[in-house]
Amino acid sequence: MTVIETVKEMQNISSKLIISGETIGYVPTMGYLHEGHLTLIKKARKENSKVIISIFVNPLQFGPNEDYETYPRNFARDKKLASEAGVDYIFYPSVQEMYPTEMTTNLTVTKRTDVLCGKNRIGHFDGVATVLLKLFSIIRPNRVYFGLKDAQQVAVVDGLIQDFNLPIELCPVETVREEDGLAKSSRNVNLTMPEREEASYLYKSLLEGKRLIESGERNPDVVIAAMNEYLKEHISGEVEYVEIHSFPSLLPLRQLEGKIIIALAVKYSKARLIDNIILNVT
Amino acid sequence: MTVIETVKEMQNISSKLIISGETIGYVPTMGYLHEGHLTLIKKARKENSKVIISIFVNPLQFGPNEDYETYPRNFARDKKLASEAGVDYIFYPSVQEMYPTEMTTNLTVTKRTDVLCGKNRIGHFDGVATVLLKLFSIIRPNRVYFGLKDAQQVAVVDGLIQDFNLPIELCPVETVREEDGLAKSSRNVNLTMPEREEASYLYKSLLEGKRLIESGERNPDVVIAAMNEYLKEHISGEVEYVEIHSFPSLLPLRQLEGKIIIALAVKYSKARLIDNIILNVT
């Protein structure tokens, strides 16, 4: 496994790989790898001849009051995990390397962001789209892997790929969970013990919503109200939202039908957790 | 030579070319090919194993009062000229093919556009950058060729390539001129006879500016005033601007130094002409 720190070197390598007929599976990460990432890497490993991951905590996608500074980092550990998982190259650039000069253009995401996390994280998805467009040009993957835990990110990347005809196959991967159902996340380490214990109820509330829909409920407001009630009973964290939309277009639904997402966000003292499930309602 | 009308087919072909170790030289055009385009194609032909041109009159880069409808089109003629010039593929998509659905993102150009044509063509370069980013993803060129007649476009593309780390070499090519000095342009056909006759004075005024600088003048305002005076004497068209900036950053200059551009735009009854020269001032 090779660690690459400059754009130029990474671009030289990806060009050579492409010309040699290799297929590149790419997993963009912000590091502090956990089983969720390793699942993405495993899938990339199976479907491509070369696997590249990037580790870059992208300042552009953090708001001024968000956790850019405290976002967990541990490159030595990441390197070991990536190597064991069969990664071929880690692209590990500095902020200066990714943003050497002021940009001359501005990319904003205008759809799929007025709901869920986008509503409260102004500019977040602009930062995500910008860094991904750069990383895609640098790594030139055939396939890119994202966890469905960040479902809105998957929806935004789906739009980005379509908008700019990027020659990349988007591969969303099921959320990986702890035994009690909590979605794996780098941010889970910032939970206190009691928070960690009750956090399994986030997923359980999603299953509660799913159960209601499967039993015939088609009014999203009824499902959302029941889930809010359920969360109030079981958790102390502040519920930021419980929402249901079409997926991946993230449009409002009056009646539950087709591919939908049930998603929520909860704020704890030092961590903000998100989770979701995607269903086909027939 | 093959004409390709769909994004999917073009992308399949470029991927195959890349894997086969071919290098792709790309000339984006809006069609109605003239000697300027043919010069770009010849250069691409010399420097790459495959040459692709696109013909697409991009509605996104025309303002509501601009000449999208009247922009000259003649595909049969273009096809013949391209074939004779040794083009391998013409990418010739419909508007529906390029913009099948409403975009989910918005790309704007925030630098290098508050001067020259950008000042009066609000949104023009946003449309140029958007379509080029799409075309670059579809055609995946090693090198892209632009005429320096559209110098601001070259500056904007230079920024776009840097911003998004596009793995493409930008190849600007000297403006091709008629015998009397008029820069070749698809829009020249919209000049009346008397307009066409005097239009050579656009270039002559640029040479006048150059002469002044070479004789020691370093104050841009003095050069601009002299050029305006010269134009007033020789042409009937309305001078939209005469400007001098650094190149390619297009920043204002108090003192002429380094790589600079002298540029102008003139409005005639049914055509708006632009021209420029780029100098190294030592």
Automatic annotation (TrEMBL), chains A, B:
GO molecular function, one term: pantoate-beta-alanine ligase activity
The protein's Enzyme Commission number: 6.3.2.1
Catalytic EC class: ligase
Binding site for ATP: 30-37, 147-150, 176, 184-187
Catalytic activity: (R)-pantoate + beta-alanine + ATP = (R)-pantothenate + AMP + diphosphate + H(+)
Subcellular location: Cytoplasm
Binding residue positions for (R)-pantoate: Q61, Q153
Record: residues binding beta-alanine: Q61
Pathway: Cofactor biosynthesis; (R)-pantothenate biosynthesis; (R)-pantothenate from (R)-pantoate and beta-alanine: step 1/1
Annotated keywords: ATP-binding, Cytoplasm, Ligase, Nucleotide-binding, Pantothenate biosynthesis
Assembly notes: Homodimer.
Name of the molecule in the record: Pantothenate synthetase
Organism: Pallidibacillus pasinlerensis
Gene: panC
